[in-house]
Amino acid sequence: MTDKFISLIKECNNIVFFGGAGVSTESGVKDYRSPDGIYNTVKEFGISPEKILSRSFFEKDPATFYEFYRKYFMISVEPNDAHKALAELEKMGKLKAVITQNIDFLHQRAGSEKVIELHGRANEFYCNKCNGFHDNYSAIESINNGKVPLCDKCGAVVKPRVVLYEERLFDGVCESAIDAISEADMLIVGGTSLTVYPAASFIGYFKGKHLVIINKQATDYDSNAALVIREPIGRFLKETMKGLSVTTDI
User: Fold this and answer.
1) DSSP labels for 220-232?
2) Considering only Cβ atoms within 10 Å of each terminal Cβ, which end of the chain, N or C, has fewer?
């Protein structure tokens, strides 16, 4: 499988990566829908994670929201071999964009520069009332101390700049993602079950040569793929980069 994947990479020069929570699990971040994911294992709040991560619940009970948020999203993690490999592919001029559903900023920390964040970023905040960006450091400090972060200007609850259930994607990200996918000659889909919409629908805009899916579970797009990989994505991409004579150790 690795040799075939390497040959496809060598053939293409406009590669786009579309990734989900499974890309970051090897860094210690929980995904959502796997047997060990947040939706199947988090029980201590007495409320489903899907409900906690909704806009209406955030407005109703920000204290519980931020308790959950601190435990599962404000964790200290490092980029793994998948993030590092994708950054190296970009440096080689092969990878033109990373489209991520994750909010952990790990792609950028690994060195990727062209990253389209569909669902925002966990460590950025803005004021619900003022609609302006808030000081990230003070918000993070409040959350880590078990407090609800409040705006220094008006006292309103500060919200993380992430897309919650019941919210639309941020302006411009859909267009950017669709443009990148529609222009790609190779699309690598990794670490995602392709069940979250509208993000999953973007795959339908791919008209290039090769669709590659790297995911532990089956997806609805497997039958359309030139190659389907069931291995852990970090390990597989690290081996791929070795085959391309590139090390991902940093």
Assistant:
1) TTGGG-SEEE-S-
2) C
Tell me how many helices (H) and strands (E) the chain has: 10, 8
Q: What is the CA radius of gyration of the chain?
A: 19
- pLDDT surpasses 70 at 250: no
Q: pLDDT digit string (tens) for 119-139?
A: 999 999 998 788 777 789 999
The tally of CA atoms less than 13 A away on the side-chain side of residue 159 is 21
Rounded CA separation 27/19 (Å): 14
Catalytic choice (83, 107, 119, 134)? 119
Q: pLDDT tens digits for 194-240?
A: 988 888 899 999 999 999 999 999 999 999 999 999 999 999 999 99
Beta strands in 144-202 (DSSP E): 158-162, 186-190
pLDDT in tens, 76-100: 999 999 999 999 999 999 999 999 9
Asked whether the beta carbons of 12 and 186 are under 8 A apart, the reply is yes
Q: What pTM did the predictor assign?
A: 0.92
Q: At 20, is the secondary structure helix, strand, or coil? A: coil
Active site residue 119: yes
pLDDT of residue 246: 61
Helices (H), the chain: 2-11, 38-41, 49-52, 55-60, 62-73, 81-91, 106-110, 136-144, 173-183, 233-243
136 close to 105: Cβ distance less than 8 angstroms: no
Residue 149 and residue 167: Cα distance in Å, rounded? 20
> What distance in Å separates the CA atoms of residue 46 and residue 34, rounded to the nearest whole number?
20
Half-sphere exposure of 142 (CA within 13 A, CB side): 21
